[in-house]
Design a protein that fits this description.
This protein is mainly α. It is 79% helix and 0% strand. It has 9 helices and no strands. The longest helix is centred in the C-terminal third of the chain and has 28 residues.
Length: 169
């Protein structure tokens, strides 16, 4: 049973986001074998969040995934993104705090999301500080390059923000 469910989950994951009909078909099969599979529920949440922008429905799937497996490493990062996209900033902040306590989680990615939360709140200096902390937890060149570009981007936003303040005075 688990092998069959995993087969369908991996098939769904393989088709996401390029072939949503095939992805959904495989995902529905996976969930029919195990309706409490956190990874399958998380992927369904991603479809609603990233493809359909139905954040409330996505949140339902992410919450269910968290209830089924509170220590799942995939769910928090996608759920946080959904919350940020839906401007549920206080909820995102709580989930980030919890996610950073999960053993084995990709701390760099969670810190990037926390940095994005601060950026949304226009707290650029704090955001930059978190990006530098995230660099400590990046273990490949692609992540390091991404962090450098984010730092540059936030600094640019910071400069524009300061110029606007000066013009206003």
């Amino acid at each position: 049973m688990t092998l069959t469910k995993n087969k369908y989950y991996f098939e769904a994951l393989d088709n996401y986001p390029y072939s949503l009909p095939d992805c959904l078909e495989a995902l529905n099969y996976a969930l029919s074998y195990d309706p409490e599979d956190a990874d399958s529920l998380c992927l369904m949440g991603r479809i609603y969040s990233e493809m359909l922008a139905d954040y409330e429905k996505a949140k339902t799937y992410f919450e269910e995934a968290m209830q089924c497996n509170i220590t799942n490493l995939n769910t928090p990062q996608y759920y946080i993104k959904c919350l940020l996209d839906n401007e549920d900033l206080d909820e995102a902040e709580k989930l980030i705090k919890y996610a950073l306590k999960i053993k084995g989680i990709d701390r760099a990615r969670i810190l990037i999301q926390k940095s994005l939360l601060l950026e949304i709140r226009l707290e650029y200096k704090k955001s930059l500080k978190l990006l530098k902390e995230a660099k400590k937890f990046s273990y490949d060149q692609a992540m390091s390059d991404f962090l450098k570009s984010r730092v540059k981007f936030v600094k640019t936003k910071m400069i524009h923000s300061e110029k606007k303040k000066k013009k206003g005075k």
